[in-house]
Amino acid sequence: MPALPTLPRPPSLAELLPGSLRRRIGERLQNLRIPDFTVPGPVARLVAHLPQQPPTQALTLALNLALDRVLPRDTLSPLTGRHLQMRVLDAGLRLDFTLAGRGFRRVAPAAGTKPDLVVSATARDYLALALREEDPDTLFFSRRLRMEGDTDLGLLVKNTLDAIDWDALKARLGGQRQG
């Protein structure tokens, strides 16, 4: 069977744009900020009645991908077996999870029990934290990020996130894509 001809690689966006335009677009993208937004109330009321398992599974998958690569398991060991809850206030989400021996997993909340730690914020503020646009301390002291329950666990989570060298991680991920 004859080999299929290989198609030429399409030019990248950087190759198509002139230098000055490419530079201006790059500068704008670097200074891009997340707009202020709130999930509309009717959407939040609907989401609050939907099963919370799919978004919790997505969260635990993301945490497990970061575990041992970005999030040091030994530092997080005090979270083992503890019931953690992440509330996305404007989206009606309550994501219940724990750290187990094999990683993060979803927890079905038991009636009448409270999570050991509840971290609450809006979708916009969680996104800003993830993109390092906002600092956890700034959100905490402006009462946009709240912690209830075992505050030692909350400080552990906050300090672990603060200790991550995001620039080194971005460089490492960028190098993997190119390599």
TrEMBL record:
Gene3D superfamilies: SCP2 sterol-binding domain. The keyword GTP-binding does not apply. Residues 73-162 form the SCP2 domain. It comes from the Bacteria. Pathway: Cofactor biosynthesis; ubiquinone biosynthesis. Keywords: Ubiquinone biosynthesis. InterPro entries: SCP2_sterol-bd_dom, SCP2_sterol-bd_dom_sf, UbiT. HAMAP family: UbiT. Required for O(2)-independent ubiquinone (coenzyme Q) biosynthesis. Likely functions as an accessory factor. Belongs to the UbiT family. This is Ubiquinone biosynthesis accessory factor UbiT. It comes from Thauera sinica. The lineage of its organism: Bacteria, Pseudomonadati, Pseudomonadota, Betaproteobacteria, Rhodocyclales. The gene is ubiT.
